[in-house]
Amino acid sequence: METSTVKKEQSFNDWVRDFYNSDKQVSAKGNYEHFRWFSTPKKRRQHEQTTRSLTFHLQDVQFKNCLDIGCGPGTWTFLLLDKFPEAHFTCLDISKEMLAQFQSRVNNPKIDFVVSAFIDFPIQTKYDFIFCSRSI
Q: How far apart are CA 134 and CA 136, in angstroms?
């Protein structure tokens, strides 16, 4: 990769990290999930429709080991956990603040939390399911 491309990716990753670690937390008042999905009737409808769509598309899926890229505060990971309670999850997010909000809501030894940009994450495990919503 050219040096300028690496610098652009690094700069963008820094911007995203800063946005979700601080800028977005100010407007979300420390509860991004509520701000993003439940703070207005329109956002609640978007959440409902997204939940329906994911439930439909996951109906025939089976897995034991999931990589969740850009898990944020765990909105969709909780849906996956309900459907696959025995599975192991690696939850990856560029924002330590998003992961902190997620971790504050769950205590599950089958979840590993990793603060990293996806491009920097060294995949050392074989995953039989990779989930990503809105982050790549």
A: 6
d(CA 60, CA 15): 37
Rounded CA separation 95/116 (Å): 8
The answer to which of 6-20, 40-54, 59-73 has the lowest mean pLDDT is: 6-20
Tell me which residue of 94, 86, 76, 82 sits closest to 130, measured CA to CA. Answer: 76
Alpha helices in 1-136 (DSSP H): 3-18, 24-28, 32-37, 41-57, 75-83, 96-103
C-beta contacts of 121-127 below 8 A and 24+ residues apart: 121/92, 123/67, 125/65, 125/67, 125/90, 126/65, 127/63, 127/65, 127/66, 127/67, 127/90
pTM value is 0.81
CA 96, 97, 98, 103 torsion-angle sign = positive
**pLDDT value for 17:** 75
Query: Do residues 99 and 91 lie in contact, with contact meaning Cβ atoms separated by under 8 Å?
Result: yes
